[in-house]
């Protein structure tokens, strides 16, 4: 990792290098975004604003899947396919647990052996800054920098834990859920929250002896999704099968991503999703700051905890609890 | 509707009458909660706090369904069944559109002809106060007052629109989604958000010629739900059929509500859900107040709108937009 330079930061020059597609400069710019130093944060804000006109041109794809589903091999294979098609591919991640575990996803570049050796690929592990809100905010801005640097596909990987999937869905144009064919008759359950988010379900390991099983699983998932009203009137989430090992189905998988963009661009939905995402990012950042204020002072934090406990135990009504906390902020 | 009395409010006496199960006093107390007058709001807060020790004893059931599914006849039939079993039944509603439409759901008591004539039933239309947050907050407090008045079942009806289902799910122990058998082979789609919330799907109009169709629909919904991982490890949401007209299946439907309570009480999930709901209510109220501050001053409101537009159009980064709005509040 590139530590921010000790020299005074030359923002216009850094912005210029990012725009020119200099990967070392891009890595340095992302490190600046991830820094907690107040002066770095101010510079990072200015840098992203400076580069904003060059952002927005990539297609942004969120990818989720449980451990073992083959996310890294899928991204490796998909990334190589996209580069062969003439794209520049950035791979980012949102993993709020990485602060605890020391970087569980994308920490190890050997997980994407071929892609990490490609000059047209840029792989960056999840920022390891504690809260999901913080991690997601930094990944969003890293994504913008990658776009300014000329990457035209951004893949954002997440682990299938809690709210991290929602966070990644909220920063991407297309949200892809990877699944495995079940062992025997038993299907892997689709987490309910995921059904709401997924723009496509893709079943990996459709190779060798697994092909029939993968097709069977696809049919059942398809039947289940069919009963659900799609989120978009312009897109019924498909269920596809592929193999990250043999590459079978990868081209068709990507074609679905492009089909989704075509289908949602004409009615204005594609742009509307981005506009809404941007406004939602802003409000989320505001709320996070507001909550951070409540946590910064130990005395206030203690009072919030005791109020929460009184409300949870039914000793104080939520309305009066809200009064008490509002007074702390006044 | 009972307007708040012109006389100075005698809170201890009103609380006593509510505790004694006086329906007129209960209606007056709810009107107090719904009032926007600052002195009424302060009194309402004190009243709910005063009655808080007598709350929490009812079973709270949220009921959703699209128009035409037979929500009113279902609640009428279910309510009569519950009263025959010795219960006192309160029926409330969350309908944020009622301010616009003049009260679309539960505005008309004739919709529940038998139940509205029952001394052991209390029916209250949705508060008509504009925002969903405001409507939901008032209904939550009305629910607490009904419990203090001795009602041991609270049914909270909602229309299947946007976030109102989430709001009702967040104030109830059990969330019931009513559906219709499809016409012919075609199933009614389950809205994705609903799948995440529903503790049971119940298919109405399983009578006469419709029985086979209802059973077929139940089988398909069951297969679809089976593929989804349930929200609770202790409860797999069942799919049942019933007829609100003939009453067939109503007892079994209610038995599932009781089974859910039994299954989730022992592992502590039932109480945990309520505790979490209470704390979440508090934070929601705080956030609503905080946002109300941004809307109260026309100059601030205009600045927020222009910042939102700049962020949506990609002229300003979300981080800088958040800075600009935070400055307005400082």
UniProtKB/TrEMBL annotation, chains A, B:
<protein>
    <submittedName>
        <fullName>LAO/AO transport system ATPase</fullName>
    </submittedName>
</protein>
<comment type="similarity">
    <text>Belongs to the SIMIBI class G3E GTPase family. ArgK/MeaB subfamily.</text>
</comment>
<dbReference type="InterPro" id="IPR027417">
    <property type="entry name" value="P-loop_NTPase"/>
</dbReference>
<dbReference type="Pfam" id="PF03308">
    <property type="entry name" value="MeaB"/>
</dbReference>
<dbReference type="InterPro" id="IPR005129">
    <property type="entry name" value="GTPase_ArgK"/>
</dbReference>
<dbReference type="GO" id="GO:0003924">
    <property type="term" value="F:GTPase activity"/>
</dbReference>
<dbReference type="GO" id="GO:0005525">
    <property type="term" value="F:GTP binding"/>
</dbReference>
<dbReference type="GO" id="GO:0005737">
    <property type="term" value="C:cytoplasm"/>
</dbReference>
């Amino acid at each position: 990792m590139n530590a921010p330079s000790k020299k005074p930061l030359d923002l216009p020059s850094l912005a210029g290098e990012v725009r020119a597609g200099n990967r070392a400069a891009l890595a340095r710019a992302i490190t600046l975004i991830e820094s907690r130093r107040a002066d770095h944060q101010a510079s990072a804000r200015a840098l992203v604003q400076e580069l904003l006109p060059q952002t927005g041109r990539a297609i942004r794809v969120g990818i989720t899947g449980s451990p073992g589903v083959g996310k890294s091999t899928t991204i490796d294979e998909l990334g190589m396919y996209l580069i062969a098609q003439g794209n520049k591919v950035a791979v980012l991640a949102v993993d709020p647990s990485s602060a605890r575990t020391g970087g569980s996803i994308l920490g190890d570049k050997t997980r994407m052996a071929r892609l990490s050796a490609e000059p047209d690929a840029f792989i960056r592990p999840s920022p390891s800054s504690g809260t999901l809100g913080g991690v997601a905010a930094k990944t969003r801005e890293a994504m913008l920098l990658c776009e300014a640097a000329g990457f035209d596909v951004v893949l954002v990987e997440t682990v299938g834990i809690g709210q991290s999937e929602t966070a990644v869905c909220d920063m991407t144009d297309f949200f892809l859920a990877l699944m495995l064919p079940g062992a025997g008759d038993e299907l892997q359950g689709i987490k309910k929250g995921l059904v709401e988010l997924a723009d496509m379900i893709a079943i990996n390991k459709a190779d060798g002896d697994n092909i029939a099983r993968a097709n069977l699983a696809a049919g059942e998932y398809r039947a289940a999704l069919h009963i659900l009203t799609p989120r978009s009137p312009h897109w019924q989430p498909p269920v596809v099968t592929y193999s990250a090992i043999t590459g079978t189905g990868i081209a068709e998988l990507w074609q679905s991503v492009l089909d989704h963009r075509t289908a949602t661009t004409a009615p204005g939905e594609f742009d509307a999703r981005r506009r809404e995402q941007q406004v939602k990012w802003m409000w989320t950042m505001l709320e996070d700051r507001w909550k951070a204020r409540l946590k910064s002072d130990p005395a206030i934090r203690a009072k919030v905890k005791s109020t929460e406990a009184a409300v949870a135990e039914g000793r104080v009504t939520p309305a009066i609890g809200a009064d008490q906390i509002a007074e702390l902020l006044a």
